[in-house]
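Today's session is about reading a structure prediction critically. Students often jump straight to the picture, but the first step is always the sequence itself: look for stretches that repeat, for charged clusters, for runs of hydrophobic residues. Only then move on to the predicted structure, which in these notes is written as discrete structure tokens rather than atom positions. Here is the chain we will use throughout the hour.
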Amino acid sequence: MSQQQISLPAKLINGGIAGIVGVTCVFPIDLAKTRLQNQRSGQQVYKNMVDCLIKTVRSEGYFGMYRGAAVNLTLVTPEKAIKLAANDFFRHHLSKDGKGLTVFKEMLAGCGAGMCQVIITTPMEMLKIQLQDAGRLAAQQRKPVIMPATKLVTANTVLSRSYNVVPTPMVRKASATQITRELLHTEGVQGLYRGLGATLMRDVPFSVVYFPLFAHLNHLGQPSPVENAPFYWSFLSGCAAGSAAAVAVNPCDVVKTRLQSLSKGVNEESYSGVVDCVSKIMRKEGPAAFLKGAGCRALVIAPLFGIAQVMYFVGVGEFILGYTSFNLYSS
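Below is the predicted structure for this chain, in token form.
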């Protein structure tokens, strides 16, 4: 079956199953990534991913690692469906001349897919980040702050300014529904799309790298030009392409996470936009700060896209809808 013949309902089923399975498996790592990216130099609550997960379980319980997962599980189906369907749509129209796609056209199709998916991705990430980061802010409040004696004279002023940005009860205890309602009430729909520019900066280059790289890696495993690669090759190709693209755009992900975090901890400053965020991180934390959480992000994205491509190329959705038979080795 050619990719262009796959129906929209099948895409929804494939994307939904892949997203739900993938998010359930890797969400704790994604939570660690968000918390590591948001902590500032000199105010580290967590040393690394393992330390973050251990402290999260101790202070918030096992299900604390899945704080914000409901948002992802709800919106991951349309997000994955839009991303994969848009890439197929653009690839189909860019190859109408009957010739194979050039690398440039593959990158162009990926660019289009990345631009389409932010419709769902931006509000999903916005809500998820508030819920994921609440535990870090609470842990930072519990951590004692040692203030030099020379600064005790101005302590009241400093503390007054600092505690103006302590997480509010809405973020610390609220559900995604309550945060959504509050954002719509105070900022309107644009509140849910805060950080849209940074999301585009991350997702468009990601898709530009991911889709062509996956297509070429997956092509290497095809037994013949008319057969698809076996499921395990699609999985490995998706993992490799996903992790490479994730690390490549991690600086943009750090900027997006910082911009979308509504509440700040003690002495954590706000950013007015992408340029302001980049300049302040570079000046105060150095270039290495843009690689925070890169390992976590690679571990999250690799299985997510590996599973998605297996579902997509094996044709689980088509099998459920009765379009085709189920074949793990040649879909």
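Discussion point for the tutorial: The mean pLDDT is 82.
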